[in-house]
Every structure is written in C-alpha cells, then in structure tokens.
Design goal:
Length: 223
C-alpha cells in the first residue's frame, strides 16, 4: 500500500467531533410585589383605621420577592376617602386625625382624585420605622396603626386603599381592593363645616380597644 493511499484513508476515517457548549441560563428576574390590609369603620363620630381587628388578628404589609440585604424605603399607604350627603356638598373634605404613637405617621391630606367617577381625598400614611428585609417575603407589622378622624358630617363614607414602597430602587405598588361603603350615617350627629368656627368637635383619641361603633361595622380594606 502506498503512502498516498494510507494518508487518504486516514483522512476519511478521522472522527468528526461536534463541540456543544450550553448557553448560560438567563438570570432569573424576580419582581417584587406589595399588598396590605387594614380594618376600617365609619359612623357619625368619625372614620376609624386600624391595623388589628376586634379579635386581635394583626394586619401587616407583605412585600414579596425580597432577599436579605434588600433595601426597602418609602413604605406608604394611600387611604382614599369620599363622603356622600355633606351639607357643603364637598365629597372629598380635609379631615383631622388623631392616633396612637407608633411607627406609622398620621394620615396627611393630599390632592383630590377621581376613581370610577367618584371624587376621593387621598391621605398618605407613612411608615417611619426601619425595615429589615428577609428572603423571600418581608413582613411589616401594622398592629400599632390606629387612627380616628373627626366626623364625616355626611350620610355615607367610601374608603379605599393602596400600598407602595421602593425596593432596591424600584417603585412597586399594590393593587387596590374593593371599595368599602358605610351608609346610613346621620349628618346631624356632628357639626357642619359652616358651624365649625364656633363648634368644632375634635377627633376622638383612639385606644387599643376598638370602639363599639367600629366593632359593629368594621370591614377589611385591601391593597
């Protein structure tokens, strides 16, 4: 056999190696979400907002998709209030609030917004404590949140809420739940706005125990 024949045979018999390199998997992207719950009620005496119900069940804000070392700031609750049947016709008045000392600041009145054709006054409730993130869910307790407003001075109150925060530099917002309505209020139970200069009734200071009125008509807000 000639050398040329040997070389030719070797060229045909050499195995062909297919090199397969697996592409690195794309890094999983976790989107944080936020949700919260509050117990609320309304009657002639005012609007009551709490982070604990009459049976001692504690409410909280849940932030998912976090990890140890995540930075969570600007945790706030938007409380939307609308009132029917006021003598002055103002469906979104500025209410005064009192509250128990806690890491949740008193509601602060903001602008008027329209939701489903109804005017609401937006109140911001800020969390002023330090949040330590955990994996995979960070829970911020709300049992110390307790606020009372002055009288709504109308025949019905609509309440709605939405939570939001900044997680690792990204703004996240909760999905507002159902609007809670409290009807059948007697506006004569509190002085009207045009009488307030001479007879303003201050908000009732909240206590750790729910008032009898709050126990009777308490509802859960989600968002």
């Amino acid at each position: 056999m000639s050398r040329r024949t040997v070389v030719k045979s070797a060229a045909w018999s050499a195995p062909v190696m297919a090199l397969s390199v697996a592409a690195p998997a794309a890094a999983a992207s976790v989107t944080s979400t936020i949700s919260g719950e509050l117990d609320v009620s309304a009657w002639e005496g005012g609007v009551e907002v709490r982070g604990e119900d009459a049976n001692g069940n504690r409410r909280s804000t849940q932030i998912t998709g976090t990890k140890v070392g995540s930075t969570i700031t600007n945790l706030e609750i938007d409380l939307f209030v609308s009132i029917d049947g006021r003598q002055d016709g103002d469906a979104a008045p500025v209410l005064g609030w009192t509250g128990m000392p806690s890491e949740w600041a008193l509601p602060v009145a903001q602008e008027v917004v329209t939701i489903d054709g109804r005017q609401f006054r937006r109140y911001v409730i800020k969390y002023e404590g330090v949040i330590t993130a955990s994996d995979p869910v960070t829970t911020v307790p709300m049992q110390d949140l307790s606020f009372n407003s002055d009288g709504p001075q109308g025949t019905g109150v609509y309440l709605k809420m939405q939570t939001r925060a900044i997680v690792d530099g990204k703004q996240i917002q909760g999905t507002p739940g159902a609007t809670q309505y409290f009807g059948g209020l007697n506006p004569a139970g509190a002085p009207m706005r045009d009488q307030q200069r001479s007879a303003r009734r201050a908000p009732t200071a909240p206590t750790r125990d729910m008032s009898p009125q709050a126990r009777q008509n308490a509802r859960v807000l989600r968002g």
